[in-house]
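pinned: reference chain
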Amino acid sequence: MTISVSHKELDILSPAVKSFIFNEAETKFLQIPNDFSKVKEQIELKKGFTQNQRNILADEMERQYSFLSESEKINSLVWKNIQLLRQSNSYTLTTGQQIHIFLGPMYVPHKIMSAVANCIKLKEENPEYEFIPIFWMATEDHDFEEIRSVKLWNKEFVWNEEAGGATGELSCNNILPIIEQIRSSFNLKAEENEILTVFERFYSNSQNLSEATAKIVNHFYGQFGVIALDANKGVLKNFFKPFIIKELEEGFAYQSVKSFSEIIKSKGIETQIGARDTALFLFEKGKRERIDRIDKETFKLSPSGKLYSKQDLIELTENHPELFSPNVALRPLYEEVILPNLAYFGGAGEIAYWFQLKELFKQSDIPYPILMLRKMAVYLTDKLIHSWEELGFETKEILLSPGTFQEVMADKITGNSQYIRLENEFELFIQKICDTSYSIDPHSVKSIKTVSKDWKKNLKSHFDNLAQKITEQNASRIRKIEKIRSVVYPDKKIQERELSFLEFKIREVNNKHIFQDTYLNSLEISVHTD
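pinned: its structure tokens
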């Protein structure tokens, strides 16, 4: 069973993102497209993507998917989509994420299937075009802490590895012991253990984490034609050289992000990223080091402290663009430079940080993509949903944020809203008495209001005592409510951030395809049960 809920019905989005999604006045100034009603206008904007760029991109993707056998290529929708990249009527829809071990938390496949569902939808509406889902693997990222662990049934398993450079280049050898730890920790059935075997096969037969992740994505989502892209390649960064040089010469990313962020702040919108004076990293001796501007002609690497002149870095760009890595501000621009891309799918935090990049794209003369909020889902059992409804709640209320839900629960148990209504009626009653008394003796109104304050205080104290007793009487009910809510918000975080893809796939063994079927129906937010 699947229950679909609109973003409008819940409070899980920030006011700014909610305003953006629903085209409200507060974010109109951004002038960022957020639906596909004008997709053909976006296609027109991307027609500057050249045939040479298409051929080089497709050639590189063929290299990255060389792990497919000749027989696999014949039936592979991914391989077909790689060839379609060469055609001028083909465009991409992109999402991306750091390359977590075992693919990471559930919001990662939520992203992937959001792109898939919309490619299918757009193809139905625009049959003259091809739409290709891209999963941008953040292989250049060096935040190893972000990707090194996986949770299964509240037990954490950690990848022990020395890391400091691009995570995509890491060897997978030390992931294999984690698989054995998982096997020894849980009594898995044969078909559940097969899920682990799939990951084991890819981690033991790949040169690095990037290749293994591409194979994992292909195994689970190749049937939908999802291309996993590793953009940390010199042949692709050749296209980005002008922007690397522009950043070294002018610091244009810093200036544009800083100026537009100030505009956003002036509108009361919280910013997500800070602008740095140089939005680039340099790969140096296996490490990804930040490039800091000392003055107009000098740069320093951090943390090593090595100095470079501007001219040295420009020459290095010309000869070895693969050594340069865009930071969080320039990465989206790099994406739009090397892909015939129409839209990006991200979570609420990503959407908000893309807001800050609007001026950067304008200064770069690169089309800004349609910005789409990805879908999300919560997975529960039929039994849990039945228990939830028996406790007196609507199914959609299970998704309310912790703060809002506490208010809803308190109201349902103690009748707080009923007290507020009675309090309002009491205020109206006192006002009527005052109005009547004023016509007879104006001086009496003051004493009436004084007495009414005492009445109101006493009544509130009486109600609070009643509410406390009601809460105590409902202690068992409250524990049941909180137990169910802990499945949706473990550690007060939404389930998709805590439930790992690996645990979900093991759970799904006995309940095939509910996740995929749900997302192909393009739901906004869904609760589905086994």
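why pinned: The chain has 25 helices and 15 strands. The first strand starts at residue 2 and ends at 5.
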